[in-house]
Amino acid sequence: MKVLVVGPKGKMGRLITQIAAEREDMTLVGGVGPVGRAYIGQDLGNVAGVGYPLNVPVVDRLEEVIDDCDVLIDFSTREMALEALQAAVAHKKAFVCGTTGFSPEEMEKFKEASQQIPVLYAANTSKLVNVMNRLLEIAATAIGNETDIEIIEMHDRWKKDAPSGTSKEIGEALAEALGLELADVAVFGRKGESLRQENTIGYHSMRMGDYPSSHIVNFGGFGERLEISHHSYNFSCFASGACDCAAFLADQKPGYYTVKDAIKF
């Protein structure tokens, strides 16, 4: 399949380009960066640090290259991702998005687009994270009403949104297992003096150095505590998963898909 990378200079875009370049089932046809950046017009392989030229350009106008691709993989910014989504719909191209920080109204645009094209949105494309989510659903169903649930998420100092998209997905899954709405029970950090309210899910966000990603979920009981966690050592697991998601979309009809659909376990 022919792949177009949106945001090939970013940490995820570079890794996705590097991994896709080595896959036999993928051909890179270009990259799309923000308007006016110094690397626009350069070879995608050089921009993404592949180690050799790919003989395809990085452009700042998506319309120049979108008709050459089968699927777009986007790990860029909210603004670029929404523009890319709109173009994907107009040109009937499959769309994988791992960008986070969208408002509920913006997320609705992905659902609307999925009526016309295959869309896969994932705040986290790691296979192990999605195995963790399955374990969390089991734990929440079994002991969620008996324990205090707290989520700790850690990312690098450059991550803009907090809490992370992955931790939001975790919280939504936990709340659903408990028959609750996350918006009604989420507590973000604590300050002052008050008792912990029952049936709430606590969030704590840390941003430091170049730390890739950690998500830790605690189920605190009396005299014991269950911890389920995932720690990434670098971003390659997410990039590899994103490419797997793109490969999955190759044969799909229009619809809204998740990593659970793409990565079987």
Structure report:
With 265 residues, the protein is of the alpha/beta class. The chain has two domains: 147 residues, Rossmann fold, CATH 3.40.50.720; 107 residues, Dihydrodipicolinate Reductase, domain 2. The chain contains nine helices and twelve strands. It has a seven-stranded parallel sheet, sandwiched between helices. Helix 1 crosses helix 8. Homotetramer. This is 4-hydroxy-tetrahydrodipicolinate reductase. It comes from Enterococcus pallens ATCC BAA-351.
Brief overview:
With 265 residues, the chain is an alpha/beta fold. It is built from nine helices and twelve strands.
Largest sheet: 7 strands, parallel
How much is the radius of gyration in Å?
Answer: 19 Å
How many separate domains make up the residues?
2
**Uncertain ranges:** none
Mean pLDDT: 94
Strand order of the largest sheet: 3-2-1-4-5-6-12
CATH superfamily of the largest domain: NAD(P)-binding Rossmann-like Domain
Structural class: alpha/beta
CATH class category name of the largest domain? Alpha Beta
Distance between the termini: 23 Å
- Helical percentage: 25-40%
What pattern of helices and strands is seen along the backbone?
EHEHEEHEHEHEHHEEEEHEH
Query: Per DSSP, what share of the residues sits in E-state strands of 2 or more residues?
Result: 15-25%
CATH architecture of the largest domain: 3-Layer(aba) Sandwich
Which outline best applies? elongated
Number of strands: 12
CATH topology of the largest domain: Rossmann fold
Number of helices: 9
GO molecular function: 4-hydroxy-tetrahydrodipicolinate reductase; NAD binding; NADP binding; oxidoreductase activity, acting on CH or CH2 groups, NAD or NADP as acceptor
Subunit structure: Homotetramer.
Catalytic activity: (S)-2,3,4,5-tetrahydrodipicolinate + NADP(+) + H2O = (2S,4S)-4-hydroxy-2,3,4,5-tetrahydrodipicolinate + NADPH + H(+); (S)-2,3,4,5-tetrahydrodipicolinate + NAD(+) + H2O = (2S,4S)-4-hydroxy-2,3,4,5-tetrahydrodipicolinate + NADH + H(+)
Subcellular location: Cytoplasm
